[in-house]
Amino acid sequence: AKDSGRSRFEYYTPDMDAEREERHRLEIDLRIAIERQELNVVYQPVVSAQDGRIVGVEALARWNRRGYGAVSPDVFIPIAETSGLIDQLGLFVLHRACETVKRWPGLKLSVNISPGQFRDPAFPQNVACVLRQTEASPAEITLEMTEGYFIQNADRAKTSMAELRRLGVHIALDDFGAGFSSVGYLRQFGFDRMKIDKSLIHALDQERSAVDLLHATVALARSLDIPVTAEGVETDAQVLQLRLTGCDQLQGYLFGQPMSADDIDSVFRRDERR
Ligand code: C2E
Ligand code: CA
Ligand code: CA
Ligand code: CA
Q1: pLDDT tens-digit readout, 177-232
Q2: Residue 23 and residue 33: Cα distance in Å, rounded?
Q3: 19 CA from centroid of ligand 1 (Å)
Q4: In Å, what is the CA distance from 223 to each residue of 16, 109, 218, 243?
Q5: N- to C-terminal Cα distance for the chain?
Q6: CA of 266 to the centre of ligand 1 (A)
Q7: Do 45 and 54 form a contact (C-beta atoms < 8 A)?
Q8: Candidate from 111, 231, 263 with most ligand 1 atoms within 8 A of CB, to mutate
Q9: In the structure, which protein residues have their CB atom closer than 6 angstroms to any atom of ligand 1?
Q10: Model pLDDT, residue 98
Q11: Boundaries of each EAL domain copy (predicted)?
């Protein structure tokens, strides 16, 4: 208690200012990078749980900051969200990814959507616009969203979801099991797919109770007719458990890291021949 009292006095330190300044510089550089379309999109294979063949890809944004090198999405996505850049960033990724998947007939595409994008009433129209421009087929596209927005803005979220559905795109609930996931909203929103968070998958190797939790989670989704993808799959032992539960799609370093479109080309051709 004594320590926490002291740290309160130390709250405003030169370090804090330096941190804020660095964040400000990051924001400026990110804005420039987005405007110049310098962000990259990489693709991680999503495979069938049955035979390990590629069935789709998840698009993930990458930023190589000039003079510094790679910045993690866990750093620049939150910055984009708080500085009004996320709409532009998100549409860039969607556009690039929709254009790129045409190289791989039959593969599904997943793209991450931030709450800030979803909140924008123009979002469904913007998606429609990208679909038109890229001539991508909406049925092949899934937008991944995390639960926070749905819990906090249920009514608005339902409206946006209905509009997106009308376009023909699918909506997946991302990171399930990472937060305070509740059964109630899982039912009321009718997601097309659920993605189990990698923290739950990684726990399989550590805690006995994680196996039960995994089975219960997948059983819940199946009882609602929601197909399940497991993310962050790294070991054969995890695959074994996931097959037992009835997950139909797997994603993780075991099957492939996020990679360039050219590298997905090779995976695609390899699995076509199998
Ligand atoms: P996410 O949507 O949950 O994406 C999965 C993250 O797990 C990715 O991190 C991926 O590289 C990583 N991953 C995949 N397989 C494994 C594995 O086997 N083990 C481990 N430890 N990690 C694995 P990444 O690319 O760093 O992205 C982090 C987060 O940033 C994403 O989490 C997503 O929430 C966000 N993000 C990335 N790109 C975009 C984007 O274009 N738009 C938005 N709104 N968010 C994005
Ligand atoms: Ca995701
Ligand atoms: Ca996740
Ligand atoms: Ca996430």
Answers
A1: 887 667 777 888 889 999 999 999 999 988 889 999 999 999 999 999 999 999 99
A2: 15
A3: 24
A4: 49, 25, 9, 17
A5: 63
A6: 22
A7: yes
A8: 231
A9: 44, 60-61, 72-74, 77, 90, 93, 112-114, 174-175, 198, 231-234, 252-253, 258
A10: 98
A11: 23-272
Contacts of 89 (CB under 8 A, 6+ apart): 34, 39, 61, 77, 80
CA of 9 to the centre of ligand 4 (A): 34
CB 179 within 8 A of CB 148: yes
Q: pLDDT under 50 in the chain at which residues?
A: 1-2, 4-5
* Residue pair 47/255 in contact by the 8 Å Cβ criterion: yes
Strand ranges (DSSP E) for 108-206?
108-112, 141-145, 170-176, 193-196
Ligand having the closest approach to the CA of 201: 1
For residues 45 and 171, give the distance between their C-alpha atoms in angstroms, rounded to a whole number: 18
Residue with tokens 């791989």: 104
In a 3-state reduction of DSSP, which class is residue 213?
Answer: helix
For the segment 252-272, what is each residue's pLDDT rounded down to a tens digit? 999 999 999 999 999 999 998
In angstroms, the CA 41 to CA 62 distance is: 6
Report yes or no: 112 and 105 within 8 Å, Cβ to Cβ.
no
247's enclosing H/E stretch is: none
Q: Are the C-beta atoms of 218 and 245 separated by less than 8 Å?
A: yes
Element (H, E) at 228: strand 228-230
pTM value surpassing 0.80:
yes
**C-beta separation of 27 from 79 below 8 A:** yes
The H or E element containing residue 137 is none
Atom 22 (ligand 1): residue with closest C-alpha? Answer: 232
Residues 6 or more apart whose Cβ sits within 8 Å of residue 214: 196, 200, 201, 204, 241, 242, 245
Question: Given this model, what pLDDT does residue 8 score?
Answer: 54
